[in-house]
Write a structure and sequence with these properties.
The structure holds two protein chains of two kinds. Chain A is mainly alpha-helical. Chain A has 13 helices and two strands. Chain A has a domain of 175 residues: MetI-like fold (Orthogonal Bundle), CATH 1.10.3720. Helix content of chain A is 73%, strand content 1%. The longest helix of chain A has 37 residues. The relative contact order of chain A is 0.14. Chain B is mainly alpha-helical. Chain B has a domain of 180 residues: MetI-like (MetI-like fold). In chain B, helix 5 crosses helix 11. The chains are: A mainly alpha, B mainly alpha. Chains A and B meet through helix 5, helix 6, helix 11 and helix 13 of A and helix 1, helix 6, helix 7, helix 8 and helix 11 of B.
Amino acid sequence: MAVDLRVNQKEDVSSARLRQWADFFRRAKRSKPTLVGAAMALLLIVIAVFAPWLAPHNPATQFRDGLQFGLPYAPFENSKFPLGTDHLGRDVLSRLLYGSRVSLLVGFTSVLVATAFGVVVGLISGYCGGKIDMLVMRITDVIMAFPSFLLSLAILSSLGPGLTSLLFAISISRWASTARLARSQALVLKECEYVEAARALGMGHLRILTRYIFPNSLAPILVNLTMDIAGAILTEASLSFLGLGVQPPTPSWGMMVNEARGYMFLRPSLVFIPAFAVAFAVLGFSILGDGLRDILDPKLRGSR
Amino acid sequence: MQRYVIKRLLIAVPTIIGITLAAFILMYILPGDPVAILMGDVLDMRTMEMLREQLGLNDPLYVQYYRFISNALRRDFGKSYQTKRLVNDIISSALAYTGKLTLAAYIISIVVGIPAGVFAAVKHNSWGDTGTMVLSMLGICLPPFVVALLLLYVFAFRLAWFPLGGTGSFAHMILPAVTLGIRPAAMLARITRSGMLEVLRQDYVRTARAKGLSQRVVLTRHALKNCLIPVITVMGGQIGGLLSGSVVVESIFSWPGIGKVSVEAILARDFPVVQAVVLLSALVVVGINLLVDLSYAFVDPRIRYE
């Protein structure tokens, strides 16, 4: 009897999940911001993956014919360099395409690490309550008190510039807010009837957390993750702009803006092409996050 | 009321202790021996050891922490490694500059954001509403350094309406303040709009209209007043963002505030300055959050009796 029950329950759960996904895609198709944001994000991902095939030149090569009387080419001035060259005679288009790799790599990796850590800590904290919860919340209080960019900056300066320290510096300042979100989800969900039922059936805490609480808290966490990617891309660009991000010769949009600052009044395109690329990426993921929130959580609609 | 205030103050205590601990620990994760930085190229073991003893770096950690706290309470953060000036002097002049800029950014965000939000709510589902929301999305998402460079290029270089950077006159402050103010203004517009949309549907607003009050009075006295709580929350929450934003904005406009000082200190590994900046900015954030919490009780009487 008990076995029968469980089989039925499993079928129910999986068909309910399927229905949820179908419902999700139906609503996504109707939500313009989600489609626009998803298209922008997808475009960036395609560019980042296929950069070596899309780029006309090597992004680090300093072309001898890349400078004209010692000055960089403007966009459309020389057919060999469609978006012009920079002060070292490197191809701007190639650097721009390759630059998406750093942005997305840092954006995705640091947010995934921060989210994974934050979700685990937050769910446990909310589910267990008591002293553990108290301690975790005080720690997040402290981390969130530091202005996140200043914290990343200070950590980065102590670890020295580079990709790994960049990822670490961004993740550390971001996990606390995710932990808060996951905790608030766990607090609500652990009072739900189905969790009580699971407990009454004698299920272990770990099983309840992974099977019931985690899947049901996913929607707001997913929205938060998308928004965080936008934030992390912005942080990476700002840190690279200050010269603390990835180091040359790896091209990054923030670094391109920084290198071009001296030429800003001579060749504004050198500054504004990579600057708008950053804006495009941040905007894409933010719009996607906004759209996802509208789809996944109608209660929160327009709350930001 | 009193109990509420005391409760909020008590909750802040562990956070403040945690912040000082974190700022203190930062000194120990920072690789690079402060003594080596201080002495520069001269590497003499005996002098180094003497200096270490002098700076108290050989004492146990808790003694150093105690000294750090008692010094910080007297606003003594030591001397800058780089310029040998007192950190307190460097920070207090920088704080004044950043404070001015932050205040200006707040004023801009209130003057622009709240009316924009009210406008969008009143014209709900019109072109004006959509336009305001699209603009606010741009305002939230555009990276501050992109906005700063754009304003610098257009208004300082092309049109030459404002100076390129530095300080001295009121005009110097406008571009950096606008750059910093755009994001909170956009946030305020969004939050005011959603709050107003909620409130405008309420019975008491309909009653006010039925009494024949003018649109202006209904909007400001009856509606806006009742969606102030989220507005205050958002404004308080922006302080950390403004301090973060000031780092990039100040270094673009060469504004000698906390942001510029911290970037220079971090690049030069001028440790006492970094520590003081990080500590003070976190304390400012906690202080503002506390004020926000206390102002809830002031704005919404229900909270006082919780």
